[in-house]
Design a protein that fits this description.
It is built from 18 helices and no strands. The protein is an all-alpha fold. The radius of gyration is 25 Å and the shape is globular.
Length: about 500
Amino acid sequence: MALLRATDRGYRFLVLFFNCMLTFGSYFCFDMPSVLQDVFTEVNNCTNSNSSGSNSSEISCNNCTDCLGMSDADYNLLYAIYAWTNAVVVIAAGFLIDKLGNRVGVFLFSTLCLLGSSTFAAGAFLKGTSYLLPIMLFGRLLFGSGNGSLTIVQSRVTAYWFRDKELAMAFGITLAFSRLGSVLNFFLTQQFEEKYGLIWTLWGGAMLCALGFISAIILSILDKVGVQQLGDDGTLKSESKKLKLSDITRFCLPFWLVVLSIMFFYNGVFPFVADASKFITTKYGFDKKPSSYIAGAIYDVSMVFSPFLGGIIDVFGKRGYIAMATAVLTIPVFGLLAFSYVHPLVCTLWLGITYSFAAASMWPSIPLVVSQSTLGTAMGLTTSIQMIGIGISNVVVGQILGQEDHTDSETKLHRWKFVMIFLLGNTICCIVATFFLNVVDKRRGGILNISRRDKLEAQKKNMVENSQKDSDNFNGEEDLLLPGGSGRKYLQDGNALN
């Protein structure tokens, strides 16, 4: 550790690596139900269903090979409760992180991820009993409390170590690592479950969350040492003491428009991913394994492109314009899925590209419109509103689909069409939000769309103006040594020292 210096580029990228590993395992776990949706909702291989009636609620799965016998509505609750928990917890979590610091956050929330994934896995032992759904929902609740909040800490760490540097690229890399977990889930979970069974599969996910906990320990050490070397420890503590929850009321209009843009865009992506495997199987007739691969293509593309897109956006800017163009280009995806039989891989690859652009442009915009001291609170509030939207969307999708296993094929396809139209409506709302975001941002100086070159030129111009002002003051317009002089000295970037 003594050989590492916080001012070195390698140090901050080492921090970034362990920061990325925080959520690798948790994102693997997050979409495991999506890959295993048929296993969660399947009842065909039950051997002791009640003979007294045909109602699906009377089916018991104690002796089935791996099925859990959930309805589609119950299955979607696994995603909805995750989203609702985030919506409630992350605001307080973000404020807590701003007050107590990153190191407290990574320990607390990585622990919740580990406990939640373990509880969820343990719930599978209770199949065939009335306790199965409550225990698994409780596990998702704990998991949601940790994972959503852990993402906030991750973003806050990234924003601190890469401020005024490779910010969008760093955000893209963290997203890529998270999506690597999701991609491996879509590629490996189905095969692992077929070979080792559901129980071992769920516990394997919990073990990956344990890897995140170990990364949290290492990250805490690196962050503590680095902040002390940079001499920012005292400043960060001082700023955290001044922070009040009422600071939320002073967030600017561009921030709220970014929040709405994120919420509406993700309302289309995440509920689709949650049900994509089953949708592809139902409409296009693919087997379970190819369906999961096709659905996972969204994250495959995101994993590959996000870091590069982040680096490009760092150089050229245009975040607001890219966000709006991304929403516009997403419309055909849900249109094709609803009204055509174009190969689903075309649509999932297309959605993966637009999702990559959205993530690389929207989330890195938040540190540009709020202060560093309130970033955790801002991220928490954004995540909360995002998850409220996703939770509502998951419930709506579940209600549209209903008891799907007990309907004919034509009715199933009709319901899936309405699901795609609902997701399309959210994308249109995102277009409206990003349009107004660009209008407001332009009136306020265009901070979201400015390029790195223009930003550097503005900083040089500001430096020259401040130097000229100091020269004029020194020549007699304002003598710094005379009573009434401002006595303020300026840094090269124009910020006051005192």
